[in-house]
Amino acid sequence: MSEGREIPVAVYAAQFDSLAEPVAVDAGELIVDAARRGGVQIQQPCGGQGRCGRCAVRVESGRVRRRSLLRLSPTDLAAGYALACQTVVEGDIAIVVPPPERIERRLTTDHVAPEVAVPEGYDAGRSQSVRRVVLRLVPPSMDDQRDDWARLETTLRRAAGVERLQASLEQVRGLGAVLRASGWEVAVTFDTGREQDDAARLIRVQGAAEAAGRPLCGLAVDIGTTTVTAWLADLATGRVLQQAAEYNQQISRGEDVISRIIYAGKGAGGAELRDLVLDTINGLVAAACGQAGVDPDDVVKATVSGNSTMMHLLLGIPPESIRREPFVTAMNHLPLLRAGEVGIAMHSDGVVDPLPGVASYVGADITAGALAAGLHAAPQTTLFIDVGTNGETVLGSAEWLVACACSAGPAFEGAGIEHGMRADRGAIEEVWIDGRTYEPTCRVIGRARARGICGSGLISLVAEMFLTGILDKAGRIDATLGTPRVRTGPHGAEYVVAWAGETESGEDVVITTVDIDNLVRAKAAIYAGFTVLADATGVSLDSVDRILIGGSFGKYINVEKAIEIGLFPDKPWDRFDYLGNTSVRGAYLALLDREARAEIARIASAMTYIELSADNSFYEAFTSALFLPHTDLSRFPSVAAATTNGG
User: Fold this and answer.
1) pLDDT in tens, 27-65
2) Are 427 and 500 in a shared domain?
3) Are 160 and 196 in contact (CB under 8 A)?
4) CA distance readout (Å), 636 to 237, 253, 646
5) Alpha-carbon distance 592 to 235, whole Å?
6) Phi and psi (nearest 5°) for 462?
7) Which domain holds residue 90?
């Protein structure tokens, strides 16, 4: 077959009811790209590297060439399965695309009743960078022929002390019409910038009557690798009007930052990832504004937090250098941007402020989190752990801060788990298991029928399975217990947490061997990260006075269960404080207060970053932590005392 010949490819998607329209592609094109042309999205959790095996499709007929057989058994190959990201078209073919994995069916926007305390003493006139003033301009005349812009600048300087004002060409084009239509009485909205001597940035000029009664709103956004969270706030009062959270749509192209960086380097992958995260953010903006009764055009400022890779992908900055030695970002301290150029669906001339990061794997989510946690002002030695996909850790006090990061994976946020889900209605959040019968008792969010298991529920479940002997130290399920709760499933041994008659879907909710392995690897990465950080700074974990837990579900973690699986150090429970999503909280504080924003910049400049891949110490610590709770049980005396199978 000659190179470049067009080949019609019939793509049948099992999640649809009918045959997809044939798609003409070139010989040698990957199946995943051919399917996308036909409007069929095939998930690539490993970023198209062929590592995860979850983009497998069945070739019904025709010629293909498999570049990789990884994750495919002889039985799979005999049945015609191929990895869509590693298989190219060599002739007319028809394929079947299995339905998306279970986690994708659980992507439901979460609207949370706002319960956020406005910072004490908040004064918009003093703290806020966004201002709106009503001006009455003197109309031009034969005796006063100043141009429209000079007339606006002069009046604004007298009324609000604004010495310099920046505007876009589009704003200047529309200025004259607005001034004349309003009878020269206008409301001017502007942002005074980060520093006292910054030029003010014009956001909007509108008729004073039109502006009357309309709010000025802001947006605090945390772009997590797994979950994106947005808080909509009234800038005049500081009050959070609405909160919303959703899985980051990029997860279908890579579950971790490395996978996404690799995917971004493939053709139009970077643009695709940018579109996916913008779709996620803009969906949250629309949902939050709709719930609060706010016009998105009245959202005039946004502060954005996230790890360095997420910030690069949002802004279309190639992230490749982050994963290549010596592991550097394109820029850690980004300038103020216009919403229109970023692509966020708010007022197009609204200000978008990307918060500063520290290094390749310690980004704005940690600097914002450190501010929200008060770590920069802590008088005692404090350990701050952001429990999430990237497992960032900060150790220090008001005098010094040292940080590191490690890839933990998305298990703690319910992704990559057979029946995983976010902490929403129907999620199993706590489990107790009878050590004699192996029967579980579950607490479900909203007291509803079970739909799945969230991160806190996974920690609780695995701890209970370990303590009751269902799991051994290596995380293996004991298949000899003689209980129907333990059985063999498609992925090996599994434990039934809820029977089909107890669930919303009418299907059993289970935890599989693969799920347990994912959770153990995630907890091992986080534990190894902070132990290596402590060793590198010469600080004993015994001398740490406080342990602060951040992350979107951090406040729901049962500290006892987290210690039992070896996620947190074995210390008295009163040393732990749970703070929830500190990244979005820090973004919210920076949204309201210029000084808080400046403090985040100071934290970013003062924080020292340790690269864990610089030597073998992290790998050795990680390997030692791949057991429940750890290979060295002397590190966990309370667990040793509570279990009979702890060695």
Assistant:
1) 888 998 888 887 788 888 777 888 777 788 899 888 899
2) yes
3) no
4) 47, 38, 10
5) 7
6) -65, -40
7) 6-100
